[in-house]
């Protein structure tokens, strides 16, 4: 331990602590901007400066290590003045249009300027010129970049994509796409959105598609049909001050109907359908011995699909042919649902509400269209956007009564719900694969080894084996693309072998998705996962094959899993 003094308080702190950590443990907050624990401790912004007795210069608390006898002042007049000047210098290079910025009220720079009571701007304005294709899914506004380099660190260290790089020197140092100069990182970006959720300002955002939904609602010739992804329910209510318990899917359905939407379904239903299709595909490959050559990889995460196609084309050949739950439900809304309701599919406007940025790009894939060539899903709104849409419609969410989802794809199971968390797809698949192989049900918690625990969360991937009849199934699960890279490298090198592999691009799975509400300096995936796990454990149906609406859709429309029609609508080929 090391003895130090902070603001006159004597403390004994662990060796090698930073001043920031030592102060935090003692309940003393030091403002930060660029600091991102473990990933970005580069001391770039100089907002966390502190005065240390005997030091000529102020020191950044986030990357200064404590020393025996150190006397630190975090609130001296010199510290406060330096922080103020550093903020004013940032403001001079910043397009301060807070009134039209999606990060207003959730922006670190804005918060710091408010906290420091900055009301004057002594330095001349000097924005960085930039161009960007604002039709692309991921948008960078260089005039709001504070050069903290968090995006570079997250993309390099967590997501192994290396899509951002640092360009220029001195005052002109900036962040730019690594792989082209045309204003978008293009194919080498997985569109996971993790750089957006870790950006402290509005410099990185996802394209806002709310206007498209507004226009569709206003167009009386259109039937607006919405689907809501499993993990949206863990987070959408935060925009209205609701807890996850208060903001279940039935309340969001009521709010959307008030906003003018015609029908609301849950993507949990098509997650159950994905299990029937992908589980059957897996069993076919497994029982014919094909998974001894290479595992079947899940394909429900478009961030992972983009990544594997661009980084590991050999492995991409082993992706499941099943479409993602979003695309399956989109295809069924414009076929099965339209047929049942007698609605012309061309008049349906299909909207997905997703925790995901990559799904905005997935729905625009040319192969995800119906017989008329129209997209199966017309537009994707992130969880953040649905909050903005409901606010713009002045919906009094807190005082609404929840309503039931619409027929004929109303039911869902706990297995569909846990799709939103790492390990959830695998657990749901194993529950049904066991039934399909043995015609008996295993306990729904029999496969809980695939869930992330405190111990396994820090590993690049986790693995488990299960005996189904006389066969042993070897599975692996990874979330975060850096972890996926390690796992795929090990599989391609023949160091490990599995039959079935689940990969989610976002750390923790969709609960930590790039389209979820941003909680500054907080990783929310774990607590949101607990919400989904609780919903699963209390759901009266916990196995996808027990979903009565799934039984009906096979009986009345699709035939059997992997039938010709199922392949046509629910698989990529
Ligand atoms: S990034 Fe922050 S400070 Fe800049 S315009 Fe947006 S809200 Fe305002
Ligand atoms: S969206 Fe993901 S892959 Fe793309 S630049 Fe951001 S962190 Fe990197
Ligand atoms: S993990 Fe989920 S939120 Fe993240 S890219 Fe994949 S599907 Fe989208
Ligand atoms: S937070 Fe310490 S230098 Fe940026």
Structure notes:
The protein has helices spanning 19-25, 77-92, 108-115, 150-158, 194-197, 210-218, 249-258, 267-287, 302-311, 313-316, 325-341, 358-362, 383-392, 414-417, 424-438, 481-492, 525-538, 548-558, 564-570, and strands at 2-6, 9-13, 49-52, 59-60, 71-73, 138-140, 164-167, 174-177, 204-206, 223-228, 263-266, 296-297, 348-354, 379-382, 462-468, 471-479, 500-504. With 573 residues, it is of the alpha/beta class. The protein has three domains: 2-75, Ubiquitin-like (UB roll) (Roll), CATH 3.10.20; 91-206, Alpha-Beta Plaits; 210-573, Fe-only Hydrogenase (Larger Subunit), Chain L, domain 3 (3-Layer(aba) Sandwich), CATH 3.40.950.10. The strands form five sheets. A five-stranded mixed sheet has the order 2-1-5-3-4, with helices on both faces. Strands 11-10-13-14 form a four-stranded parallel sheet, sandwiched between helices. A four-stranded mixed sheet has the order 12-17-16-15. β16, α16 (481-492) and β17 (500-504) form a beta-alpha-beta unit. The radius of gyration is 25 Å and the shape is globular. The structure holds iron/sulfur cluster (SF4) (3 copies) and FE2/S2 (inorganic) cluster. One iron/sulfur cluster (SF4) binds next to α4 and α5.
**Radius of gyration, rounded?**
25 Å
Give the distinct bound molecules.
iron/sulfur cluster, FE2/S2 (inorganic) cluster
Name the assembly state: single chain
Give the termini distance in whole angstroms. Answer: 61 Å
**What is the 3D shape?**
globular
Provide a count of the helices: 19
How many beta strands in the DSSP annotation? 17
The name of the CATH architecture of the largest domain is 3-Layer(aba) Sandwich
CATH superfamily of the largest domain: Fe-only Hydrogenase (Larger Subunit), Chain L, domain 3
Mean pLDDT: 95
CATH topology of the largest domain: Fe-only Hydrogenase (Larger Subunit), Chain L, domain 3
Tally of domains: 3
Residues in helix, %: 25-40%
Q: How are the strands of the biggest sheet laid out side by side?
A: 2-1-5-3-4
Main sheet specs: 5 strands, mixed
The chain-level structural class is: alpha/beta
Strand content: 5-15%
Low-confidence stretches: none
Assign the CATH class of the largest domain: Alpha Beta
């Amino acid at each position: 331990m090391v003895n130090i003094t902070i603001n006159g308080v004597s403390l004994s702190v662990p060796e090698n602590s930073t001043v920031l950590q030592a102060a935090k443990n003692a309940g003393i907050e030091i403002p930060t901007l660029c600091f991102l624990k473990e990933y970005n401790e580069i001391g770039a912004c100089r907002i966390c400066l502190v005065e240390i007795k005997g030091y000529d210069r102020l020191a950044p608390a986030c990357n200064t290590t404590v020393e025996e006898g150190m006397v630190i002042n975090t609130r001296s007049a010199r510290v406060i003045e330096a922080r103020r000047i550093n903020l004013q210098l940032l403001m001079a290079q910043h397009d301060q249009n807070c009134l039209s910025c999606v990060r207003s009220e959730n922006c670190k720079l804005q918060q710091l300027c408010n906290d420091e009571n900055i009301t004057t701007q002594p330095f001349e304005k000097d924005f960085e010129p930039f161009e960007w294709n604002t039709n692309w899914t991921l948008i960078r506004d260089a005039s709001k970049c504070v050069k903290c380099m968090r995006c570079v660190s997250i993309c390099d260290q967590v997501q192994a994509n290396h899509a951002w790089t640092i360009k220029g020197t001195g005052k002109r140092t900036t962040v730019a796409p690594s792989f082209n100069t045309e204003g978008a990182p293009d194919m080498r970006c997985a569109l996971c959105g993790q750089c957006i959720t870790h950006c402290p300002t509005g410099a990185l955002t996802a394209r806002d598609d709310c206007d498209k939904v507004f226009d569709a609602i206003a167009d009386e010739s259109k039937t607006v049909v919405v689907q809501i992804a499993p993990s949206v329910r863990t987070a959408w209510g935060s925009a209205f001050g609701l807890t996850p318990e208060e903001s279940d899917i039935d309340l969001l359905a009521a709010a959307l109907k008030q906003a003018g939407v015609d029908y609301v379904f849950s993507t949990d239903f098509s997650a159950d359908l994905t299990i029937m299709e992908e589980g059957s595909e897996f069993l076919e490959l497994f029982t014919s011995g094909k998974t001894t050559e290479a595992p079947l990889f899940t394909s429900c995460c478009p961030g992972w699909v983009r990544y594997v196609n661009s980084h590991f084309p050999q492995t991409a050949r082993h992706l499941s042919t099943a479409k993602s739950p979003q695309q399956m439900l989109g295809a069924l809304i414009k076929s099965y649902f339209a047929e049942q309701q007698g609605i012309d599919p061309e008049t349906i406007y299909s909207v997905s509400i997703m925790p995901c940025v990559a799904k905005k790009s997935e729905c625009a894939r040319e192969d995800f269209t119906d017989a008329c060539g129209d997209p199966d899903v017309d537009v994707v709104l992130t969880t953040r956007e649905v909050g903005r849409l409901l606010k713009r419609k002045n919906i009094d969410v807190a005082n609404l009564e929840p309503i039931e989802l619409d027929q004929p794809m109303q039911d869902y199971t706990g297995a569909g719900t846990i799709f939103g968390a790492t390990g959830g797809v695998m657990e749901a698949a194993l529950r049904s694969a066991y039934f399909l192989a043995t015609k008996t049900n295993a306990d729904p918690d029999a496969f809980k080894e695939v869930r992330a625990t405190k111990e396994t969360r820090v590993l690049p991937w986790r693995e488990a084996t299960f005996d189904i009849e006389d066969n042993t199934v070897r599975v692996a699960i990874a979330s975060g693309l850096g972890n996926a890279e390690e796992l795929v490298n090990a599989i391609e090198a023949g160091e490990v072998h599995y039959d079935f592999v689940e990969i989610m691009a976002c750390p923790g799975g969709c609960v930590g998705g790039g389209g979820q509400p941003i909680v500054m300096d907080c990783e929310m995936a774990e607590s949101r996962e607990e919400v989904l796990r609780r919903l699963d454990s209390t759901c009266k149906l916990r196995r996808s094959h027990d979903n009565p609406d799934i039984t009906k859709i096979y009986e009345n429309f699709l035939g059997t899993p992997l039938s010709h029609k199922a392949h046509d609508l629910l698989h990529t080929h």
